[in-house]
Amino acid sequence: MVNFRYVLAWTLLLFMGANAAAQGKYWYKSFSGTIDKYPFTLHLHRMDHGYTGYYYYTKAQRPIYLSGDDTTTAGKIRLQAYVPGTESDYETFTLDLKGDSLTGAWIKDHTGNQDFPVKAGPQTAVTLSFDYVVTSGSEKLRPKLGSSPGASYEAATVWPKGNSGASVNLKKILQDLMYVKGTGDIGPLLLAQKKRFFADYYSTHKNVPDSELVEFTSGYTEDQTTHTTVMYHSGSILTLANMSYAYTGGAHGNYGTHYASVNPATGKAYKLADVLSPAGKKALNSLIDKNFRKERELSAKESLKEAGLFEDTITANENFFLTGSGIGFNYVPYEIGPYAMGEVIVFIPYTDFGQGGLNPSFKK
Fold this sequence. Notes:
CATH topology of the largest domain: Heat Shock Protein 90
CATH class of the largest domain: Alpha Beta
CATH superfamily of the largest domain: Fervidobacterium nodosum Rt17-B1 like
CATH architecture of the largest domain: 2-Layer Sandwich
Strand order of the largest sheet: 1-2-3-4-5-6-7-8
Distance between the termini: 39 Å
Radius of gyration: 21 Å
Structural class: alpha+beta
């Protein structure tokens, strides 16, 4: 089923992000510390009173998406983690942020059981640092019409500081993820993109009569949101997640996440051929099938259609991400299953590829 909390998080960000640029309350910070005795890393992005990001335990290194705000609990940042494969509310963080230090609690469920202390400081084992650049806005199609439909636009991305060779290469990758063309700083480019979005919106609907706009308001309402955030960062791998949402009328909007994994030393994206040897590539599809079945508790004899897929096969695509422990493949809604299934992520530990499955240079 669709992770409706994920879609709700996007909706909340659309609302909370409207005043972010005006108030200047946005940043990206990375933390490392412990949950109880377990080392973990948190990548957190702030937009006014809203927060999104990923966290992962050092041992597993499988990023978990989270979002929240600093208004639900006075003086605290409250984050809800969305654990793949679950529909219940699990893993809530309640945190105090002082400078670059976090303290607080991680709670397994709403009963307060398994309540563990959290303590973290700045992540230090990284070479790149980032700003967080945001632009947003909303406009009415016919301002003088009381019930006029409107459009909203929001774009946010991490942006490397400095102009080293790695930073320059990475900026090009980020522009591609954000669908931004041009040269120079990302801020003016995003503003120009926003201007084009509203100009196209007005142009497309300029001849629609007022009576139709009033009767079919949702049919002329548009929203466009795209955020690029840090999912994973180590000395050898930086993984970026571009989450986009678009509504152009109809029953629901469309969303999806696309990834880019980069070598921080060069700022260049890893290709699948950089990661897997010929033997690893040969085994890839069978390992995707194996791990999908494992995560969905599907036996080797059962059809993948039993888990909701369109077909009885699942193969690798180009939308993959890397961490220190494995490679994940993401399939957006409608790609291999219905919209109600949501995004499908299949994660393969590197150990599944055996001794010769990874390229020696990458493995090193």
